[in-house]
Amino acid sequence: MTTNEKKKIILITPSKIIAKGLDGILNNYSNFRLEAILSDISRENENVIKNSSVDIIIIDTGLWGYSSRRQLRSMIAEYSNAAVIGINTLSLDEESKKLYDDIFSVYDSPSVIINKLRSANTSDREISENNKNELSLREQDILVCIAKGMLNKEIADKYNLSIHTVITHRKNITRKTGIKTVAGLTVYALLNNLIDPNSIE
What is the pTM of this model? Predict the structure, then answer.
């Protein structure tokens, strides 16, 4: 990225106060541009993320419970390699914190917020370059289903995906792991602690 190329940001929050405040902070820094403010993740807004080439996605952590946050993180990983930053509007447990590249508080100073945005975006790019073969959260979910013996249709129904999307994920899992058989993928899932041995039939 050149020095005068702006980092593009999508903000997801229903709070107009947070949106206005963050927009004001970003306007004072010429290397950031707020591309879109989304109030939620409807199908239409999901398409905004899918069709945007952004560097950072900032999410209000108070919007979803843990399972919804995990699904949202998986969805973002499918469409974008943007860094995902949480705005901490409620207390998060340690597992929830792991779903974000970084988190800042609504009480943080503008300089702290800007430093976290710069840092997370840089580390995200380095991680994505170094771990191109690492499975996304959605791929891990699907790998667990495969190891449990679920069919493509069952996986598609479970995650509200098309069968074509499930097949694409399976191809990506095979490409990234180099493993083509269900038995081999099951062993991979076990060795990487993605699945409890007792859950396999």
Answer: 0.60
